Amino acid sequence: MSIDFKKIKNHLMTGMSYMIPMTVIGGIFYAGSIAFGGTAVAGEGMVIENEFLLHVQEIGGAGLFLMIPVLAGYIAYAIAGKPALAPGLVAGYIANTEITIGGNAVKTGFLGALVLGFMTGYLVRYMKKIHYPELIKSVVPILIIPVVTSFIVCIFYMYILANPIGMAMGGIESFLTSLSSGSKIVLGIIMGMMVTVDMGGPVNKTACLFSIGMMAEGHYEFFGICAVPICTAPLGMGLATLLAKNKYTQEERDAGKASLFMGLIGISEGAIPLAVADPAKVIPSIMAGGAVGGAIAAVAGVKDYAPHGGPIVLPIIDEKIWFIIAIIAGTLVTAFLVNLLKKPIVNAELSEK
Model pTM greater than 0.90? Predict the structure, then answer.
């Protein structure tokens, strides 16, 4: 049986189109609250003291969280229709929530949501083909399919997928610890790729939590490395949509503008809608940009005294010039590489979106 990649891309684009408004709501409110009321505090990150702006940030946080369940839900919906929507949303929520299995805390974020969205959609499609007794046919789409699918997909994720992922993240953290006394440039490259590969997901969080742990021991150069690739993915993808408008749909260009704003405030998730639209080209590009930015920051000895990234933390950065250079370099590499890999959109596809 051949795989229809065009249909898979259409399912991804459906999920992305419903996710983008959530991303914009979350990004604008969350980034705006930090921009207007955030203060970089050593050891604490960006602190907001104004009560109104704290509430604005909560609105933004809700949008950024919900964009992941919406992605999974509407991928499932694109595959199998209405009966797949609710279990897809539930599965996406589980993917974006930290769960503890076998002593390992796991949260897979948008990558987990992609997998669970497709699993849910295809399982529901299969269940719709089953011949049910006349007595229960009326409740199949509103009771049997959503409940059974949610149980199967979420339990499979928790007990089959999540535990190995958690163990892998623990292994990666140990690997980073072993690298910390070695080559700075190698550490910078690896951490830069880790921070960018899943844009706020488990690999990103592992690198950031490792760096926060090193901050507690007085080593601020590790988060100095993280602070650069945290923003190069959203900044690079936002810039890419401006430099090659013929390679992005109008929806993607709109997402690119939000991505730029979120990158300035240090929110990696701003690049997720663009990554969802074309992961095979976007993810390697943002990883390359992260590697370049991370390597420059590592070699230059950039130090970040707050566990946050992006240009907004510049006031508390050591080696400010190199920090800016690293961000610019990583952003440019991301933008130029992804545009080199992507092909122009044909008019029919553009109008379809």
Answer: no
